[in-house]
Specification:
Elements (H helix, E strand, L loop, with lengths): L1 E7 L4 H11 L5 E8 L6 H7 L4 E3 L8 H14 L4 E4 L8 H4 L6 E5 L11 H8 L3 E8 L9 E8 L6 H24 L3 E4 L2 E4 L7 E3 L4
Parallel strand pairs: 1-2, 1-4, 2-3, 4-5, 7-10
Antiparallel strand pairs: 5-6, 6-7, 8-9
Helix pairs in contact: 1-6
Bound molecules: 5-O-phosphono-beta-D-ribofuranosylamine.
């Protein structure tokens, strides 16, 4: 069975959706560890409630970024983690972790990449005036939200949207496509060819358009 490690900095609703999808047996995997950089992250409460080990570790306690991410990689490897999930981890992951988990770190981003990467995906999409936005699950490489795209879901963006209303609409789909990507990974259905991710079970599962056009 695949062992997962989760990195999160905040409320952890994506972390929760993964827990729920494991408990309902949609995903056949176990979560060995939550790592957070914030001692007050609500994700910790979720870990406690579900008896998941957690570790609080801040880059401030390390000499540099490389040693921080080597430490995280050591902790993950020590627990046999085969897939790392960034569930609202608000940092650009260092190369010392990326190189030890090539195409085995997944992130969820609240915009249709490659548009609006970075910390303010919702705000940037609204300010740009897009009519469609959404979310993207992708593998993590050394760039900022630049790794190969696994699944995307699209939602409408309305003229009167605020960051909050758009974020709520997108979040619903984050909670659907992140567990789906993890499930496909556990089933060995995801292949990476350069920039492209090929999904064995068919093209319908990687492009989700809501509402149907
Ligand atoms: C989500 O919007 C996700 O797309 C982004 O960070 C946020 C995390 O939310 N990467 P949560 O902590 O999972 O509720």
């Amino acid at each position: 069975m695949l062992t997962i490690g989760v990195l999160a900095s905040g409320r952890g609703s994506n972390f929760q959706s993964i827990i729920d999808n494991i408990e309902s047996k949609f995903i056949n995997a176990e979560i060995a560890l939550l790592i957070t950089d914030k001692a007050d992250a609500y994700a910790i409460e979720r870990a406690k409630k579900h008896n998941i080990n957690f570790l609080i570790t801040s880059p401030k306690d390390f000499q540099d970024k490389d040693s921080y991410y080597s430490h995280i990689a050591d902790e993950l490897e020590a627990r046999g983690v085969g897939l790392v999930i960034l569930a609202g981890f608000m940092r650009v992951v260092g190369k010392t972790l990326v190189q030890r988990y090539p195409n085995r770190i997944m992130n969820i981003h609240p915009a249709l990449l490659p548009s609006f990467p970075g910390l303010h995906g919702h705000r940037d999409a609204i300010e740009y005036g897009v009519k469609i936005s959404g979310c993207t699950v992708h593998f993590v490489d050394e760039g900022v939200d630049t790794g190969p795209i696994i699944i995307q879901a699209a939602v409408p963006a309305y003229d009167d949207d605020t960051e909050e209303s758009l974020s709520d609409r997108i979040l619903e789909h984050e909670h659907r496509i992140f567990p789906l990507a993890i499930k496909l990974f556990t089933e060995g259905k995801i292949k990476v060819k350069g920039r492209k991710v090929l999904i064995d079970s068919g093209r319908e599962e990687s492009a989700l358009i809501n509402p149907p056009l």
